[in-house]
């Protein structure tokens, strides 16, 4: 019996190690590629460790991509702000109120999750061109928010539905208005889901490429995803600098995922059960 239990544990360990290795190995070789020369990167067999490690390529990539890094931060925080301002009250309304267009609204929110970004790029570009939202941060922020707002609303709605309606009814009896209920009851109790939606929204906004490429033509406004694209054109394909820049770009979401992984899972599953 004990041997069977040990075998089962090892079996599940192997099952978990296979996808983990598939994910980690490319990241590892990208990371060490930034410490090697181009000749060392293409050495056969490949080096498992940099034979002559140097930080020069990382320093060069960081110096070149620093302005793009700032732009990525501005856009990601802007998307987060717009998303939470719209998604929080929307999720509250969908979860706790009955109104005429509730089902169509829920369907539209779900439909946007399977809608490709390329399907709305041209309509948004035409609209934003007429109102002066091309070549500025706001246009990209609003474009990305078209997808992050429905996503965050769905995550928050699932959690807020699990908040007992009796708390809201008791607050109404005590004379509290809906705004007071929202700020004093819903927001504090939904903080795990808000944290989850915020983290995932930041990651989605940080990695955006298509909206930034379509709406930002001035290089001084472009985020780091476009900076890496320009980095190739500016220096040719210098793989060590490209790998170093890619790793710098990946570090913030990697840190967030590692530090907040459990919080993300807890926030996504917390509203799955009702008493």
Put the structure in a nutshell.
The chain is an all-alpha fold. It is built from twelve helices and no strands. The protein has two domains: 16-54, no CATH class; 67-272, Orthogonal Bundle (MetI-like fold).
Description:
- It is a single chain.
- With 275 residues, the protein is mainly alpha-helical.
- The chain has 2 domains: 16-54, no CATH class; 67-272, MetI-like fold (Orthogonal Bundle).
- The chain has helices spanning 2-33, 38-41, 56-96, 102-112, 118-131, 137-160, 165-173, 178-189, 191-206, 210-215, 224-235, 239-269.
- Helix 9 packs antiparallel against helix 12.
- The longest helix is centred in the N-terminal third of the chain and has 41 residues, at 56-96.
- Residues 271-275 have low confidence and may be disordered.
Number of separate strands: 0
Overall SS class = mainly alpha
Mind telling me which CATH architecture of the largest domain this is?
Answer: Orthogonal Bundle
Strand content: under 5%
Order of helices and strands: HHHHHHHHHHHH
Rg over alpha carbons: 23 Å
Q: The biggest beta sheet, please?
A: none
Distance between the termini: 37 Å
Per CATH, the class of the largest domain reads Mainly Alpha
Which superfamily, in CATH terms, is the homologous superfamily of the largest domain?
A: MetI-like
Number of helices: 12
| Stretches with pLDDT under 50, minimum 5 residues | 271-275
| Average of pLDDT | 84
Q: Remind me, CATH topology of the largest domain?
A: MetI-like fold
Overall morphology: globular
The residue fraction in helices comes out at: over 70%
Could you say how many structural domains there are in total? 2
